[in-house]
Specification:
5-stranded mixed beta sheet, 10 helices
Length: 344
């Protein structure tokens, strides 16, 4: 005797079939999104996907959370590339370097994290959606981010100084994924290296002959003297700081763009011009000290010695005073003199 299905059984069977039917397109849509991202990634030389308002809606706002991927986004504006203080082109290159290194280190098989950029003129709506009103700006949108502005993680601008390394650390701390080593392109190509080696081999006999005969510029004491002065100036002027931090020589006055700012008041920043100015004053003091200790001692005229000594002391006192006053104006700290207690 056949068993007729009950209404409850038919209802549960229909509900299960419907849920199974609805779940299949969702899984397919997620896989299609990942496949589309991989395709866009493969079309980019650096692996950075270029997004706009349409693709932001497709990959971030339309899919339901949790999404099967995270997107690390660099916000760009080509009209601001000439603003040297923003360093947008350099940061964009470092961002692309992190993207290509991440893809290479994962053998082009990672589907959990993608790198992308957005340009302001093309995607002003997306900039508003993220709440971006200043650049540089880098943001990570995780799988569970529903609100792109409130739920995504913004990278602090103070971390940009270490460039690609700080970007990689930010990604690793937020996604728990390993970026791996940063693969920077070599300074010289193989062809350039080959040409340099060939030139060195060809010129080696001629250079050796000059060295053994003492006819090179390295045998000139004035060259070593100039080099020593340059190294001293380079050390005390903060030139290495300017190179590492990419500091500008000056800034434009925001209140009056026709004016230039060479000295920045505040301990958190030093412009190239003020570093060179202080380095010049230090170099003057150092040269005067060298003149007094190495040249003046050979002068036989006592009056000339006294005149040069007094002039050196006065100029050195003026230079050191300028450095102290500049430090006090810049940082607010004062240098106090300490006299012997018996003088009080």
């Amino acid at each position: 005797m056949a068993i007729s299905p009950t209404p409850t059984y038919l209802f549960l069977l229909s509900l299960f079939t419907l849920s199974l039917f609805l779940s299949i397109p969702t899984a397919e849509s997620e896989s299609e999104l990942v496949a589309d991202l991989l395709a866009l990634q493969s079309e980019s030389k650096s692996g950075v996907i270029h997004l706009d308002d349409r693709t932001i809606a497709k990959f971030l706002t339309s899919p339901q959370t949790p999404r099967p991927y995270s997107i690390f986004i660099f916000f760009d504006a080509t009209q601001l590339h000439d603003k040297s203080e923003l360093h947008l082109p350099e940061l964009r290159r470092e961002f692309a370097l992190v993207a290509s290194s991440f893809i290479t280190n994962h053998n082009h098989s990672n589907t959990k994290l993608f790198f992308a950029d957005i340009e302001f003129r093309e995607s002003q709506s997306s900039f508003q959606l993220f709440g971006v009103n200043s650049l540089p700006h880098i943001r990570l949108v995780g799988p569970n981010a529903k609100s792109l502005k409130d739920d995504s993680d913004q990278m602090d601008q103070s971390d940009f100084s270490r460039l690609s390394e700080s970007m990689a650390e930010f990604v690793e701390s937020r996604t728990k994924l390993t970026v791996g080593p940063i693969h920077r392109p070599p300074i010289l190509s193989k062809t350039q290296m080959g040409l340099i080696v060939a030139l060195l081999l060809i010129s080696a006999p001629f250079v050796a002959k000059k060295i053994f005969s003492g006819e090179t510029f390295l045998h000139d004491p004035n060259i070593w003297l100039s080099g020593a002065i340059f190294v001293y100036f380079f050390s005390v002027s903060g030139a290495m700081h300017n190179i590492i931090r990419k500091m500008p020589m000056f800034l434009l006055d925001r209140n009056d763009p026709s004016k230039l700012i060479f000295f920045y008041q505040g301990s958190g920043m030093q412009l190239g011009a003020e570093g060179f100015a202080v380095g010049f004053l230090y170099t003057v003091v150092g040269l005067l000290l060298a003149i007094v200790t190495h040249i003046l001692v050979h002068v036989k005229n006592a009056k000339a010695k006294r005149a040069v000594m007094i002039s050196a002391i006065c100029v050195s006192f003026w230079a050191v005073q300028k450095v102290i006053l500049l430090d006090n104006w810049k940082t607010g700290y004062r240098i106090h003199g300490f006299w012997p207690s018996s003088w009080n």
